[in-house]
Design goal:
heterodimer, A: mainly alpha, MetI-like fold, about 80% helix, B: alpha/beta, D-Maltodextrin-Binding Protein, domain 2, 6-stranded mixed β-sheet, 11 strands
């Protein structure tokens, strides 16, 4: 019990004592996962919408692949991205392996199917009559698309939350493609693994507290936005 | 119906156009971002170091090696990957790393014989330690050699936790089992497949024996319920070496920076700092600087 209690006390001291390296790691986690999320949402929402609103040959296959991708094991994603980025791999000359960029790529690969799949499902649930109505009211293309997006706002926010939760707390893929290099690619999850390995419980606890605050905080903020929409409707 | 088609089609085309624009934007943007990330104007040199975990986890690399190297080669970004000797040499054998810090002499000799490295220099030595429960049920303390200690553990079928990960420590352990004439197997022989830290932790929870490097054990000692039982014998000697990966075989290897790294380690200043490391924290020397053991038995034997 002492171990846990002392760990927590020391962790709080680290958090409020302004240990710069801890916040540096937290900031790196945040921007890597944030950038991955922005990319995944920018690409994934329109793609998911396109899949939902259109019929074409092979659509079922694409939808099936997307849904399967939602459950892609991060370590497998890590392995694949490593194989591509490795020095002697297809795009090794970029020298991106063991850099934050490799981690962003891996996280985009993890988040994209989640965003796509969930926005696809949401878009498909919109009543066809609603779409007809939007067109009948003379909405332009952009207007129509934005209106449809607004319709599924709640579901979209859920997709964003799910994707963010998935990537910020993920450890396998970022460990493989980032390498947990101090000052360069060490993020909260990989740092927690390392600090636990070398027995620095208090640092591991401090990092865990930040990770949980980030994960809960982001979800909380998005939930607030989501529920505001509900009140207005 | 016309309008429905229209709504459907227009939203679809728009989302496609949006996706295309986003993708193009990304393709344009990413290299720009990458440019910002990798330092403003000068393209910095990169050195990938694959190391045994003990040198990293003990803090030697971060506290001693990197500061010295930064002085010698300020324009090189060092990427240290703590992976264990087996994986480090696998990375070297595929040209994925530039310089290796390893402690698995037999495998190192094979690595060099295969032409994967251009230079192999011993850097530091210490002794592996057999640790276990304070009660020492197998009587390891009374042994005259590590092989004898292992034989006693096997005879009593006392729990022994092994890394089983082809690391330098694991290779040493297997060599000792062979010397003891024991084929370790059974419920008492627990394989973790993980690093030294995790393995020590599991040994502590299960109150089993394990073989560990000194540095990792000392840094974890306070959080473990294990005591050092046997060390110092000739068959527990541990030699750390640096290997420069062969640039002729793998053109992408940064041999120039790798050589600078090796020089830092074997330089007088480097050797002195390695010998001094850990004395203030643990009250004893973690690594003995390598003094003229080149060609000695531990270093050379394949």
């Amino acid at each position: 019990m002492d171990l846990i209690w002392n760990g927590i006390v020391e962790a709080l001291r680290l958090l409020f004592g302004g240990d710069g390296s801890i916040y540096e790691i937290a900031w790196r986690s945040l921007w890597i996962s944030g950038l991955a999320l922005v990319i995944a949402v920018t690409v994934g929402v329109p793609l998911g919408a396109a899949l939902a609103l259109n019929e074409f040959g092979g659509r079922r296959v694409v939808v099936a692949v997307t849904n399967t991708g939602m459950a892609a094991p991060p370590v497998v994603v890590g392995l694949l991205v490593s194989l591509f980025l490795t020095r002697n791999g297809p795009v090794g000359d970029l020298r991106w392996l063991y850099t934050p960029w490799a981690m962003v790529i891996a996280q985009v690969v993890i988040a994209l199917p989640i965003v796509m799949g969930l926005s696809l499902a949401a878009m498909q649930q919109i009543d066809v009559g609603m779409r007809q109505q939007i067109a009948a009211l003379g909405a332009g293309r952009l207007q129509g698309f934005v209106l449809l997006l607004r319709e599924i706002k709640v579901a979209l926010l859920a997709a964003v939350m799910a994707a963010f939760g998935g990537v910020i707390s993920e450890v396998g893929a970022v460990m493989m493609v980032g390498g947990n290099i101090e000052g360069q690619t060490q993020v909260l999850t990989t740092a927690i693994v390392q600090e636990t390995r070398i027995g620095r419980w208090s640092v591991a606890i401090a990092l865990s507290i930040i990770l949980m605050v980030l994960a809960f905080g982001a979800n909380f903020a998005m939930t607030v936005v989501q529920q505001q929409g509900r009140r207005r409707a | 119906m016309m309008s429905a088609q229209h709504a459907r089609g227009s939203a679809f085309r728009l989302s496609l156009a949006f996706t295309a624009a986003a993708l193009i934007g990304l393709v344009v943007l990413l290299p720009v971002l990458a440019g910002c990330g990798s330092g403003s104007a000068v393209k910095r040199d990169q050195l990938i170091v694959a190391t045994t975990t003990s040198l990293k986890d003990s803090g030697l690399i971060d506290n001693v090696v990197l500061p010295l190297f930064a002085k010698a080669a300020p324009n090189v970004t060092v990427k240290v990957l703590a992976v264990g000797s087996g994986e480090a040499m696998a990375m070297g054998a595929s040209g994925e790393a530039d310089v290796l810090f390893v402690h698995s002499p037999a495998d190192e000799a094979v690595f060099m014989a295969a032409g994967n490295g251009t230079l192999r220099l011993p850097v530091a030595t210490n002794h592996f330690v057999i640790v276990g429960p304070g009660g020492d049920p197998a009587g390891v303390k009374r042994a005259a050699s590590a092989a004898e200690a292992f034989a006693a553990i096997a005879k009593r079928a006392a729990t022994f936790v092994t890394r089983g990960d082809e690391s330098g420590t694991n290779k040493k352990e297997l060599k000792i089992w062979a010397a003891a004439g024991v084929q370790p197997a059974g419920a008492w022989y627990v394989k973790t497949g993980q690093g030294m830290g995790e393995t020590l932790r599991i040994a502590s929870e299960k109150q089993g024996y394990t073989l560990t490097d000194l540095a990792t054990f000392l840094s974890l000692k306070d959080t473990l319920d294990l005591v050092p039982l046997f060390t110092g014998s000739q068959d527990l000697k541990n030699v750390y070496s640096v290997i420069i990966v062969n640039q002729d075989k793998f053109p992408k290897v940064n041999a120039a920076a790798a050589e600078q790294m090796a020089q830092v380690l074997v330089s007088a200043a480097g050797q002195k700092a390695i010998g001094a490391y850990g004395v203030d924290k643990y009250g004893k020397q973690l690594f003995t600087p390598f003094a003229g053991a080149l060609g000695s038995e531990e270093f050379a034997t394949p």
